[in-house]
Amino acid sequence: MNQPIASSASAATPQTALAAILESVQPSSLLLISLNPVPQIEQWCQHHGASLQTLSESDPVTPLGKLERFDMAIIADQLEYMTREAGAQLIGLLRNLHTERVVVLYQQQLAPQTLRWASNGFLAMGMRRDALFRQDDREMALYSYDLARYNFSREWNNSRFWANPENWGKYWW
């Protein structure tokens, strides 16, 4: 089935889950999109010799167009302050043009009611929920997208289950 980037079921905090993902992927170039600094990511990049590009603007879509590809992108403390449409555009641009792996940390309580994403909004973008962290009345969800694990191989999609096995791989329509 579609596996998460890293298993964070046992991760007690968002920091440990993020560290597990970074350790499993080992990106050499990382894009961080966040209105506030995330020291853990900066420290990880320094310790592992990875390049880090940070966008900390309220509208990161415009400067994103000038950037190249990255091994991974992390969005934290950003989507809570963007409209759903702008957030979907940001995630779509990242997925389609800038990286094969996207990680989103999202706190629904921080967003005004009109800007809140439902969990199925992230699922509709091809993401999976890897972890949900609760502390008192606060809740943070960790979503990820990994192109290599997005479309898993299905057991039934082969010539054995084809209506005309002799035509498997010959015709495309």
Measured between the Cα atoms of the first and last residue, the distance is 27 Å
CATH topology: Rossmann fold
Name the structural class: alpha/beta
Give the helix level as a range of percent. Answer: 25-40%
Total of helices: 6
The name of the CATH architecture is 3-Layer(aba) Sandwich
- By CATH, the superfamily comes out as Vaccinia Virus protein VP39
Can you summarize this structure?
This protein has 173 residues and is α/β, with parallel strands linked by helices. It has a single domain, classed as Vaccinia Virus protein VP39 (Rossmann fold, 3-Layer(aba) Sandwich). It is built from 6 helices and 6 strands, in the order αβαβαβαβαββα.
Account of the protein in words:
29% of the residues lie in helices and 22% in strands. By secondary structure, the chain is α/β, with parallel strands linked by helices. It has a single domain, classed as Rossmann fold (3-Layer(aba) Sandwich), CATH 3.40.50.150. A six-stranded mixed beta sheet has the order 2-1-3-4-6-5, with helices on both faces.
